[in-house]
Amino acid sequence: MLLSAEHISLNFGLKPLLDDVTLYLSQGDKVGLIGINGTGKSSFLRVLAGQQPPDQGSVTRDPNVQVCFLPQNPPMEAGATVLEQVFAGFSPDTRALLDYEAKAMLTRLGLTDFAQPVGTLSGGQRKRVALAAVLLHPADVLIWAPPTTWTATWSSGWRTVCGSSTGD
């Protein structure tokens, strides 16, 4: 078991968002949450990622599991360049090792001006910068809260972005 969330309850003020939700994630599982706006999908993902505590219940991870979280609105430094933002939090040695891979990934995501300031990018371009950054981190579990408009747009190209193909 990579991650388990058991009996999760979460309230937004007096409004219950989640009530006794349980999820188990094992190696190879792919899970999607679908629902109308305001029903707690992103909140549940923040709980799974350890970014927000549940009101009740528990989340347990295998201690050897690396989890990366890509929120709907990731924080960015407006003055940083695209490449600087992708490498935020990486050591200089890691940056040097991943430079080619980062640029290749950004190019596949449609971003070729690596020196462009993040503050001048559209919302969609900023999200692609954040996606490249999170995909460069080694992770066993990627928790991603894409905006609604990304679901159809990126689902068909996801395997290409990750550099693998299932042939379907």
How would you explain this protein's 3D organization?
With 168 residues, the chain is of the alpha+beta class. Helix content is 33%, strand content 21%. The strands form 2 sheets. It has a 3-stranded antiparallel sheet, covered by helices on one side. Strands 4-5 form a two-stranded parallel sheet. Strand 1 and strand 2 form a beta hairpin. Helix 3 (92-108) packs across helix 4. The longest helix has 17 residues, at 92-108. The chain is globular, with a radius of gyration of 17 Å.
Q: What is the helical fraction, as a range of percent? A: 25-40%
How large is the radius of gyration?
A: 17 Å
Low-confidence stretches: 151-168
Structural class: alpha+beta
- What share of residues are in beta strands? 15-25%
Q: What's the N-to-C terminus distance?
A: 28 Å
Number of strands: 5
- Order of strands side by side in the largest beta sheet? 2-1-3
Reading the helices and strands in chain order gives EEHEEHHHEHH
Average residue-wise pLDDT: 87
Biggest sheet record: 3 strands, antiparallel
| Overall 3D shape | globular
Number of helices: 6
